[in-house]
Amino acid sequence: MEVAGHVDDYNASFRDTVWLQSFPLNAQTVLHYFALSPFYDRSCNNERLKMQRLGLDQLKNLRGVEYELLPNAAKQLPQQLYIIRKQRRNGRTQVEPLAIYYVLDGTVYQAPNIHAMLTSRLKKCSYRINKAFHGLAAGPDVALEAESEIHFLQSTRYEE
After folding, report:
1. Own/partner pairs for 112-117, CB < 8 Å, 24+ apart?
2. Which domains does the chain have, with CATH numbers?
3. Which of 128, 82, 126 is nearest to 106 (CA)?
4. How far is residue 32's CA from residue 26's CA, in Å, rounded to a whole number?
5. 73, 101, 114, 117: which is deepest, by most CB within 10 A?
């Protein structure tokens, strides 16, 4: 999702081993850790509150871009996965999601949006269909090779 001042980067990750060796990563520190990453927008409301030495509970009173740590829905202990939402606040109860980030075992990633996931899946499908048509056009030997690849892919695919 492209928004002014926001650029998606699904191939990047961030990890600060020195910070992780010095401080525990938990629900109270993960936003501080995330603020060190290149994903963090230094003009966000979280940063304004930090400079004014106010608590994050004051975010609801401000309008603009902010980061929110989402609750630990899995109730996992110790928590290994933290989910952070970048959002634009338009009112006390009105927010517009801009991006989702996750911190898994100390590494920060941006989660792909639905458009990026569907594009990736469609490209893979298109490639395989194109390869099958080329195999059929090339003759029966190549078609058999393509068929065996399809059987292999079906036997190893992820079951939901």
Report:
1. 112/10, 113/1, 113/8, 115/1, 116/8, 116/10
2. 13-111 (3.10.450.580), 115-156 (no CATH)
3. 82
4. 10
5. 101
